[in-house]
Amino acid sequence: MDRHRGVVRWTVRACALVAWALAALGTAVGPALAHGGSLGRAARDSLSVPAWLIVATGGAAVGASFLLASFGTDRAFVAGLHGPRRYLRLPGRRWLSRLAGGLGVVVLAVVVVAGFLGSTDPLSNGAIVIVWVGWWAGFTMSTYLVGNAWPALNPFRAVARALPSPDRRYRWRWGAWPAAAGLLALVWLEVVGPLAEEPRTLAVTVLAYGVVTVAGALVYGPDQWFGTVDPVSRVLRMYGRVAPLESTGDGLALRFPGGGLTADVLDGRDDAAFVVTLLWATTYDGLVTTPLWRKVARVVVNGGVPPVAVYPAALVAGAGVFWGLYLLAARLARRTAPTYVDVATLVRRFAPPLLAVAAGYHLAHFLGYFVALLPPLALAVTTPLATVEPAVVVLPGWFGTVAVAGVLVGHVLAVLAAHATAFEVFPGRMQAIRSQYPFVAVMVLYTVVSLWIVTRPEVAPPYL
Amino acid sequence: MSDNHAEHGPTDPPPPDSYEVPPEGAAETCPDCGRPFHDAELVALHRGLAHEAVLDDEARERVAAAREVESRRLRLFRLKAIAALVVLYFGLLMVYAVVT
Q: Residue A341 is nearest to which of B6, B18, B88, comparing CB atoms?
C-alpha cells in the first residue's frame, strides 16, 4: 500500500517536472517549430530560423531529456511508470476478433477489385487510397497511438485460418533476419516501384504478397508465420509496443505510452536488428527525397554504377551503418557503466526504446498526409469504384509543428524508456545513468539525421 | 529528489549466464548468486536489491554504506547535470537571439 502511495506521489511530482521541462524546451524550440520542418514542403523556403539551428535544437532537446531523466533515480518510482497499470475486460472477445477478421477480408477484396477495375488516377482510386492513406498512414498510426489491432484485422491470417491446415508443420529456424530482409525489400519496392501511382501494380503486389503470406502461414502455422516471419505483422506489433493498450491473456492491458518498451520482449540479436532496420527504413524513406541524395546518386551513377543498383545498395548500406552504430553503443556501454553484462543482452534490452523514435518519425511523416487526404479516403471507403475528383484538406501553416514535435516526443519517450530499462538491468543507479552515455549519443545522432531530413526541401528521387 | 527512501523497487538483473567476463576473471562476484561485478560497491548494491531477505547484519551495513556513497555521487552528478542544462538552455537562447 505504502509503496503504491509512494508511486502516486512520485508520479504527481514527475508530471510537474515533465510539464516544467516541456515548457522550458518549448520556449527554446518554439520559434523553430513555428517556421521549420513543415510537411507542407513549400513552407520550407520561407524559413526564418536556419535549418542547422533547428537540427541543433532537436539534438539538444534529446540530450536535455537525458539529463532530466537522470533526476528520476527512485527505483520504485521509475518502475511504477512502466508495466501495465490496469486490465480492461473485453466482452465477446472471440466474436469481435472474428468480426474484425471478416472486415479485413472485405477491405482486402475491395482493394484488389478497385486496383484492377477502378480509376487510374491515384487519388480517386480506392486501392491506392485505402492502402496508403487508410492503412499505411492511418492504421499504422493507430498501432502506436492506441494499440495494435492487426492480429485481429489481418485478412491474410483470417484466410489462412479458414483454409484446411496440412498435417505437418515445419519449424522456422532463421529467427527475425528474413523479416528484416523482407522489410528492406518492401521499402525498396515502395520507394522504387510505382505502388503509390499505379493501382494495377499495387493490386498485383498485394496479391503476390498475399499468396506468399498465406502459403507461409499454412506451411509454418499462422502463429509462427505471423509472429516471426511476416515483416508487416512484425512492424505493426513492434509499433504496438509504444501504444498505451495491448491485448494480453488477461484482457486489454492499459499502460503509459511507451511503458511497454522497458519489458524484455525481444528474442535476441535478430529481433533487435529488426527494430534498428525499422528505424532505418523510416529514415531512408525521407532521405531519398533530399537534394543531397540527388547529388550523391548522380555522382555515383556518373562513376559507372548502374542506376538500378544505387537504391538497394544505399538501403542495405544504411541499414548496416545504423546497426553498426547501435552495436558500437552497446559495446561502449559495457565500459561506461561499467558492467560484465554481455553485448547480446544489452543489444536486446535497449533496442525497444528505439521503437518510440521510429513511431515519432512515422507520425512526422504521415499525420499531415493522412489528414490532408481524409476526403479521398472517405470517398474510397464509400464508393471505391467511382471516378470523382476528390477534395483535399489544406493544412494550416502551424501543422508543420506537429512533424517536428512528433520526432522530438518520440526521442524523449525513447530516452525515458531506456533510462527505466537501465534501472532494471543494473544494480547501481550511477551505473545505470553512465550506461546510457553511448546510447544517448547514438540517439542524438539519429535525431539530428531525422530532423535534418525533415527540414530539407523535398525533391523527386532521381533515376526512377 | 530524495535518495534515502523507497530505493528498494523491483529489479530484474539479467540471468547469470548472460555475463561476459574477461579471461583474467571478474573483479568481484556476488557470494549469493555468483554474478560478476566490477567493484565491491556494485556487489553490495546488487545484494541489497536482489538478496535483501537473506543478508546478515554485516552485509546490510555494507549495503547501506554503498548506497550512501552512491547517493553522494548522484548529488554531484545532478549538480553537473543542472549546470549542463543551464549552459544548454541559455546557450541556445543566445544563439537564437543572434541568428534570428
A: B18
